[in-house]
Amino acid sequence: MNEIKIALHMHTRYSDGNASHSELTAIAAKAGLDGIITTDHNIWVKGIEGYYGEGKSRVMLLVGEEVHDRTLEPPGNHLLAFGAQKELSPFGREPQRLIDQIKRNDGLSFIAHPIEDPLERFGEKAFSWRNWDVQQFTGIELWNQMSEFKSVSPTLLSAAINALFPARMTLGPLERTLILWDELIASQKRKIVAVGGVDAHELVKKFGPFRVKLYPYLHQFKSITTHLLIPKPLTGSFPEDRRMVLDALRAGHCWVAYDLPARTDGFRFQADNDEGTFMMGDRVFIKRGLTLQIRLPQKANCRLIKDGKVIKQWENREVATHITTEPGVYRAEALIPFKGKMRGWIFSNPIYAWA
Asked: Could you give all domains of the chain from N- to C-terminal order, each with its CATH number?
């Protein structure tokens, strides 16, 4: 399998962002990304998907949409749609119908910032998901950088520090979101894929004569990424490469990464048995036993989670293994020290082991 790195969930000037699509691909190239997926609010921009740049600066641009019900109060129910190739905002008031439309058009649906706190000091509301009776969505946005900002900025001082020094803010997905993810998998008894979203806008604020860019695109593109495992290297043919990206997201052949402290390239979480090797997102039968292996790009702390509970932890390891005969949903997490704190680094999608 071949590894590529993308950033997803970002906004352009078509909604509330501060860059064009081509400008975002140029920034993505500087950040070392292979691709980006834009998601403007309630608007799908047609006809601009493709490769941008040349050589090592070439970046794939996929155009999705962040759909929500404009009439909902308090606000919420934001859904990321990738690959449907049609305008979906007319379905925003009916979440299940929206999900069904995306699926009918061979697209993917991810619940955006499923749990979010209000930023009351600044009059910012929480944009959490509320309709939890929906079915057949592809997955959830496990880690949203701007939602994290709301949760860790209760005071004016903390908000100013986090905005001006964003590398010191980022700690990991909300624990409540991790718990929710495990519970959704258990209750719906199916694969639910996790992705990481930057939710990038590059906010511009004026302080007297000065203009300050808060959470610039370049910083965010170097931070929360989603790494994908695809069956062969990118070909340069956009339709074929687009299909590989969407297929990897659909299958959960990916992990959520915080690449700023250290690159997560080369991470693997896999399972081996008599029938072969299986990766994140795969279903595998236990049979006579299963060997789970975590391989990290460098030494760090990691843990193995089964059905939402930590069953094994290791410190300062590059490789960790666990042999089991128990069916369950297994996933891996890694933590790394950065700027004086232990921070979330890698969050794998699960391997689904059945009896």
From this structure: 2-258 (3.20.20.140), 268-354 (2.60.40.10)
